[in-house]
Amino acid sequence: MMNIKMEKIQSGDITMKLIKPVFATLVFIFALSAMTFAQTPEELYKDELGIKRLKIVFPEQNSTIENTNPMITIDASALEAAVDPQTVIITLDGSEVTKYADVTSAYFIYQPAAPLAPGSHEIRVVAKDINKNEIEPLSWKFNIAGAVKKPSIKEKPVTNGTFSLSADIVDSDYDETVPVDVPSLFGEKDGTKINTDLRFSNIDSLRSITGSFHRETTYFTDTTIDKGRLIYEQENVSASLGYFWHGISELSMIGTELGGALFQIDSGEWQFDIFSGRTQDPSTSGTYKQNTTGGKASFAWDEKNTSSLVFLSADEKDNPLVTTLSNPAKDRIASFIHEYKHSSRLSATMEAATNKRTVDGADSENSKAAKLRIDGSFDDGSASVSVYKIGEAFMPVSEGNSKFLKNDREGYSASANYTLMEMFTLGGEHEEYDKRSTDLTTRRSTGYLSVLGHRNNRFTWRRSKLSASGTVSESDSLSALFLIEPNENLSNTRLSVNLQNIDYSAAGILNETKVFLFAVNTIFQESARLGISYSQTESEDFINLTDSKNKTTITDINSDVMQKPLSWFARFEFSDNFGTGVDNEERRTELGVKQRFRADFAVSLSWQGNSYKDGAAPLLNYDQNIYRIGSEFSF
Description:
The protein is mainly β. The chain is built from three helices and 36 strands. It has a 26-stranded antiparallel beta barrel. Strands 2-9-8-4-5 form a five-stranded mixed beta sheet, with no helix packed on it. The two termini are 43 Å apart.
């Protein structure tokens, strides 16, 4: 949905006065539709209901904002299983900023300390829930208004950056006689792991070069991840090498992490985008890794019309660990896109695409897709309407499971929001489509009311419903975010509360899940940042007579708000799982210090202790200590 700030209307005020009440009525209908439609058959996708996804709060995707220090906010309160804050990683333009963000079980907030430069900026968030399951990664771009600054004129290139190096020494205690690889289930294996971070920039009068490299051994696995990027920019030309998020269109490459190369040219009327590399994050995309190569050429006919052609090939790689189910596919996608911008308030995009798909060397199948989207907005609201028709074998390139949720369907979607008196925001969205292969219908609706109170305190009620194939899932949530008045001891205090109830019914299943989240973050006497969060999830199946409960408490305190030579941090997490056939608890404790000896050199020491106790399966008990020593250099 677009939400673009517009100039004041100079004429037609009478027409707008008539349109606004009608628009508000339509928004109200969208909001109530979540409660009114009847059940119809179709397969249930919890992802489509949104209870397995993070949500963008601000800035909106592809929006343009004036504020150069935006409060970047992600909503995690609607997840079916609460997020594990310890696993959250937030990056801004490829650089990790997690340690500077407020991360709780309900929301993530990051506000840059330095103003962001005009132009495009990219946010990426990855995380796991408390059950150690991957949450679908969230990536989007927004723009800072203003002219993009060219590199400062220098007689010689100027280079600066930081480099950090650390070693983890891991010691574990577990029953080695168990016929299960316990360390692979609950933590890193014994041994020494090396972690590195490098960030640098090199700028002169004609071009800029920025780069980063990161190596780590992932938590709760024993795999090493190496990720880096190198970006070269000069007037009208840019080249990127490494790992970055990239998207082309809604029917070709929706948006995914690309590990490879990207080359972009802007020559005025013509724009070119050429890329090649690995797509899909293996942790969330199922069995395969995928290599994708393609390009996009765009031509601006005038200020209102732009046409584009996209061609790409995507080849899934066979997984040697899965011999019976490994059926890698090859996709060849061609797409035509035309964008029409009637005014700053109204635009339309049409895309038609074809996909030649071959699975495991079998005969190829041609599948087609088409979509028309119209976006509009005015001072107090915005709306978007889409109609589409997507073939059964049409598989756009995208991250995670989303590629499989966008094929084999014919339908429409509509969304809208309206703000009244700068205080109340009423919104909703509704989607209805038929599976082309089965002729079964799915309906998905969400309605919400958000109230902005004193000091930007916000209260939000949201109701969602998805009906498909005799299965119905309904979700009601109520959340509140309070910004507390500062006093002589506390500042930047945020308090968040969320209540959610999810009802799920299908053949042989009648399940109810209740979620409660509470989190508070504050800064004490401008010297220490304190965060406390508590989450409780209860799930009960009334037909199979099973139940499960989870209670998680996290306390986090650190002194990174002060620029002193000695800084420290402490963190404690406790998670208790119990119910039918389940009885385990997990504790995690972290302590660390960092001493800066001079402006360009620092040394850090830390300890992390992990403990897992299983009352139902004591042989899986596991204790672990991780000792880390590191250093940081600036240049």
